[in-house]
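thoughts on both lines:
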Amino acid sequence: MTPSRPTKDSKAAREALRRRMADLGCSVAAIAQEMRVTFGYRNREAWRHAHGWSQQELADRIYELTSQQPTETIAADTGAVSRWERWPAEQSRPRRPTMTVLLAMASVYQCTVEDLLDMEDRAALPAGDLALLNKMAAVAPTGPDLVRLAADESLTWAHWAEGTNVGDFSLAALWQRTRSLAARYLDPASNPIELFRRTRDLRTEVAKLLQGHQPPSQTRDLYVIIGYLHSLLAWMSSDLGHDADAETQGMTAWLCAELADDDTLRAWVLSVRSKTAFWNGRLRDAIQHTRHAAHYRPTGSVSVLLSCQQADAWSQLGAHDEAMDALAQAERARERMGAEQDPVGGLFSCALPRQENYAAAVKLRIDRPHEALAAADRGLALLGEQEIQAYGTLAQIHISRATAQLQIGEPEGAHEALLPVFALPPDQRLAPVAGRLTELTGALAPLRGGGRGGVGLRAAIEAFRVDSAPQRLALSPGHGSG
């Protein structure tokens, strides 16, 4: 076993030892052995320090050597050298040096491959490599022997390439778990903060799989899955009032979409980022994200949602014509999508009730309360037909309905419309719902007097905001979004 490394290990101490031994006429092999004894280095690291080289210097020498030979060119870096030296001790990031790498190291160090391996290394070598090592002469092979060795190494690598740390069944399970989280986030029986934790855990699980080995097609699937998980974390972070964290998650999701080269994921990521920008007050950014997404021609209902989001931002800016045009685009997108299915569904889908919710909110802002009331009623009717009613959408439709009642002079109807909203448990009082209630207070301005018509509604809205999910999260210990 490798001895524990003394605390006196430092660059200065290593150099002092190397120079003193060199002045005494010691060989590089003797210096390497002393490096092992004194500092507890593995064989490969000891030989590098015996030469006085940095990891980058070794990487450069290996590249220079192999680029001039008819065998594989090894383009190494400091990270690769570090992993080659520490293998097999750090199994969390296994990067076994191949026989080609070991031969190149032995050549630049002017030693044998066996000099670079201890008992622990030999025990961890694949059976094929160990057999090759035992057949090798004390010096590195040349000529036909080198060519045959390279072929044997390629066969060994092919066996490795066929392996994977995630199979088709595991991928299907990861997809199912991702879809379940996206669906459950809309479920009135769910707790959004607990779902955030579960989404974070699944994201971490997929990230660890990506650090392992799998065929390129499976790697792409993993990047798509983790892209949706980061998008879900971004949406949740914004709902919990953490827009800066949501933007970070959104940018990470975009990186995943780029690595997967998946246009539908790109569109959903941009939809999430548009949502974050909207509730952060960056309305022009929200519009720009939706326009950017349109270039990818995604499948499913994301095109409907993007047009709805664009209408939302235009209406907030007071651009009536642009807002109505965007709502019309959403209708056309709905017609074009036909029977196309969304890859994930749940939060990552735009069913008709969600579209009506946006239409109601937009028409309220552009002074069309009767049309808004009609859209809200259609949305409520459509939600009533669904087995699981998305509580966030349902709450916002009730708020739109109440706002429309106020704008047409029916405050009692507004109070009745808001009763389901005020009944939401605090953990489901998300930031967008609280934001929509804040918009509603503007419609209360013309009302005079107290009671349910004015003061009562204001008091109920303030109580809702004080005991909401973002407020509870802010007051809880260790509330970072992860």
In short: Residues 310 and 393 are 17 Å apart (CA to CA). Residues 216-239 form the longest helix (24 residues).
